[in-house]
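--- STAGE predict ---
source: upstream dedup step, 1 unique chain passed
mode: sequence only
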Amino acid sequence: MPLPILALAIASFCIGTTEFVIVGLLPEVAADLGVSVELAGLLVTGYALGVAFGAPIVAMATAHLPRKPVLVGLAALFVVGNLLCAMAPNYRLLMAARVFTAFGHGASFGIGSVVAASLVPRNKRASAIALMFAGLTLANILGVPAGTALGEAFGWQATFVAVAGIGLISVAAIAWLVPSDVTEPSGGGLRAEVRVLGKLQVWLAMLIAALTSASLFAVYTYIKPYLTDVSGLSTAAVIWVLLLFGAGMTIGNIIGGRLADWKLMPTVIATLLLMALLFVCFKQFGAIPRVAIGMVFLWGLLIFVAVPPLQIRVVEAASEGPNLAATLNQGAFNVGNAGGAWIGSVALSAGVSYANLPLVGAVLALLAVTVAVLSQALERRTVLPSGPSPP
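--- STAGE serialize ---
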């Protein structure tokens, strides 16, 4: 791995841990701050909304600034944000700190993707971006389980302090390893970037991404109580199951990148259908511990088989101005994160049991399939040549 891309991967590891580690700490945070687990789950929603709103704001505000200082500044924002989370004395201030931290998320991945692509020959750009995103998947293998264990042993605040430490390492790595003269690929400027937002296919691609994430987070936000209450696993065992989920994501990321180069939209549609089926299996067999563990691994694999094709889809749909679209797509994923966590919270508050919660994920996955099929059908109608009418 080229050293500058390693620096970006460290940053993505920090960002991924920041976003997902709260899932493993919901019961501890809820108990310490005196709120319900459902209300604590909205910390996932708050972060995701921060990403969604912050992505376009930060992307446009930093559009004319040198890339390296922007990346260093964004990495520093995660250090400050995680320290604020650790010091938050109540639920409201913790929510505010999470939202503040999230503002740098979308731009970090969007700008980081552009920088990673600019550091390698054109025929290796997809591989470079995949290497950068490897930090995100490794966060779920190492960062989330380790952060969960640390929080259970020393209090959830200790987890955020540790993540801030990782953030300091990413600041140093970017400042040291990323070339100062790195630039974005040439394009049509901010006006061209904004103009592509008028294309229907761009919005359909982002809607698929949002619904896919929603199907994940409607269930994943509450995976710890699901595994303990429904599957009968111990709290300690949940840490290892989360590690398996991250391992599945890492493998799925590799598979998804390769499949996207082969058949992009068929990969998306087939993967989402398999996800819907897996959710139904969760509902039917989730009470069996070994089966539940295996399904969590497959779940992580499937969700990240879908991610590379969805990222490529929106960039291709916005080919005249892909930089802002790449950042906004991160916002779309996180709108789905927020929506899914909220939908899961509403379902639980309305009386849906943890055992039946996967059916909510299945419905959202099928909605994503519907949009994907529509997008592909519209694309085929557009590209089909209009020859002479038959006699």
